[in-house]
Each structure stands twice: as structure tokens, then as C-alpha cells.
Amino acid sequence: MLLHNTLTRKSELFEPLEKGVVKMYCCGPTVYNYAHIGNLRAFTFYDIVLRTLNHKGHKVTFVMNLTDVDDKTINGSRKEGVSLKEFTERYTKLFFEDLSKLNIRKADLITKATEYVPEMVDLTKRLMSNGMAYKGADGSIYYKVSAFPEYGKLSHFDIKQLKAGASGRVNADEYTKEQASDFALWKAWTPEDGDVFWETELGKGRPGWHTECSAMSMKHLGETLDIHCGGIDLMFPHHENEIAQSEGATGKQFVRYWLHNAHILVDGVKMSKSLGNFYVLNDLLQKGYRPEAIRYLFISSHYREQVNLTFKALDSAQQSINRIFDFVRSLNEVKSELNNPDVEQLVVSATNAFELALDNDLNTPQALSALFELIKETNKLIAANDFGKENSNEVRMAINKFDEVLGLLYYMEKPLPMPKEEIEKLVSERAAAKAAKDFAKGDSIRKQLKDKGIILEDAREGTTWKVA
To answer: Does the pTM of the predicted model rise above 0.85?
Structure first.
């Protein structure tokens, strides 16, 4: 499998340090607001990487962080007059709800920055001891960029263009390449931080944003990771600083393959609140768009290409999804006992095309093309009555394998284990029994439906049901 490594700007054969075992870290959200659609495109990309590696037979240890202490989270919590923990936990919950809606698998380990302060302190002390960090006049501790000659190798920023000491220092978590500067590893407490601080050997304060990912990733994955993912906006300064911190402390290569996904556009322009084209997931769902259409739109473009979000594109994505679902349903309806031997080769060809697409730097548009070619050719055979139940099983097994990566069939309505009218009749009878305080009958109906695979969910508004 070839992966485009941002570090080298080349597509390279992927070989993990340990055969069959992959150590992967991806930058999670800063939990101070809803994740916007651009963020969710990145998390869908992470999901495709994870699913592909699993599909190819690798055992993956996937770690993702939550930044629950930084400038944004502190400012947000103080503005609302609530504790940092209360503030960040609210947005953490909303974030995972969005992941679930888009069928994005959770990482094996979710690390919260506030729970790894001792590791960040240790990393900072290590950098101070080897002369790569120093205490500033403001009491904060800064990384000495000039002490790391390879600084800029990820973003291809030439640090040699800066005169010694001319870079100055930045205490803000985020800044631009033009501000390439010594950056804060540990921030001394200021009144703006309120009650957010830790008393440590470094003094009263809190970690810098960049310190978090280095400390947490190395804690669980070791000093050299196989893969680090993130949006292209994180390449500088965040990922550049991660490399400087980690390699400055260990002397070892921090990450072997850096993978970055491109931005999302809305109607061809950059998403911005000032332009009125800024969307979170619920904005699109409230407009009637289905989560599967949004997921499909994300993976219908290569991860290194910009996604152009338009309502027309979402409508088209839904049509493509419906075509897949209708085809899978049609496979279930094949009754013929005929066995067409040509179907095996058809499946092999589609599978080879699908695998080659994934091997070509996770080319999901090509992978989708392989799926639709299989659908097209199979439909021709079905229309010609040259296709049987055994063939149907072959094709369905192939599509199930494809979906290990694509994650689209999750959204298909599951077949009902009993007629819908009968389910709703029993639900009504149970409601009447509860109203009459005949709880034994109500429980009996719930169990009857559960045994059939129907789960009831009671809420203030009434009872709903779903297929287990």
C-alpha cells in the first residue's frame, strides 16, 4: 500500500515498524464548540485510514486526543461562567454524537489533555535538561527553535532564514508560519486563566497546546509512531512543533508517515462564519440531508483533494447511496436457482480494482468506482435472468468486504422481523396496558417484541421502536 507522506512529499510503500501492527495517532478536537463540517471531514478520513488498515489485516492501536484545556476552552468556560470540566464535557458529548451519526469508529484510546499533565511536565523538564527549552521572563517555559536544526522539515519552512534570536516568542496556542517563533511548552498562570492551573515543579500554570499531543502519543504508542493524521491546517505550527518537541527529547524519529487531509469548501469558497457558509452537522441534518449522504460526499473525493460542499452535491450523494441500497435489496430478492459461473470472475475483477484503489494512497473515489462497476454489470445479468441466488451471495459478500472500508451499509434499513402493522398494534396495546396500570401485560408485550428483535424506547413524547 502506497501512502503520500507529507514529510517527504512522496508516495511511499507503507511498512509499519512491527509487521502487521500499526501505531496510529490522530489529532482530535478542541472541545469548545460543535465540530464543524471541515472537522468532520478530517475525522471521516481518520476512519477510512483505520478501516483500510484493519481491512488489509493490520492490528491497529489508534489513539486520539481531546484538547480540553487551551486558550479557547478556558475563554469559553469563563464566558459562560461554568467550570472548564463542565464546559468541555458538554462539547465532548456532542462530538461523539456526531461521530456516531457519521458511522465513524471511536479510537481505541481517547486521551484528554487534562489527564496527562504529569507526562507533559516530564517532557518539558526533559527538554530543559538538554538545552532545548528555557524559562522566559514571564515565567512560561519555551521551546528553543534554534536548538533544533531540522525545524521546518514537515512544512518545508526554512528556519535558516531567521537570524539567531530574531524569531521572538509566542505564548498563544495558534499562530501562522510568518510568526515562526519559540513557542510555549508550559504557560505560567495569568489572571485570564482563572482557576485553571496546576501546581508543578515547573511552577503554577498549564501546558501549551503543542505539548499535549507529543506527551500523550508517546505515552501510549512509544517514541516512534507509524502514522500521524490531521487536517492540513495543523501541519504548521502544531505538527511541526510536535516533531521538534518529541525528537528534541528522544533523538528518535517521531513519526514515519504523516497523512494530512485537505480543507472543505462550501460553494467553492472557504468556509467562514462571516460569509454565512459555516455549517455544523446538525445544520445540514435540519435541512433534510441524511448523514449517509454527508459521509458519501466526504469519501467521494480523495482525502488530499478539497471537498466542495454544495446542496446539489449532497443531493447527488444521496442518489448514489440510494442506488447502492436499492441494489443490495435487489440481491435479497433473487429467487432463481441458476448459477452463472461468470459471476465469480466479475467479483474478482471488482475486488482487485477496489483493493488497487486503496493501495493507491487510499483512493476512495476509485474504490467507489469499482463498487458501481460491480453494480452495473450485475444488474445487466439480473435483467437478462442470468443470475441466481448463489451468485447473489457471492456479490453480497464482496460488497460486505468493500463496506468494511466505506461504512455505508450501516445506514440501510434492516429488514423487519414481523409486519410493521403488527409491531405498531402491539406498541399501542402496551401503551393502553400501561395507562390501565397493567404493568405485567406491558412487560409481556415488551418481551414479546424483544424476542422478535424489536427494541422499545420510552420517552416523555411516547414510545418508539427500532430493529435491534
So the answer is: yes
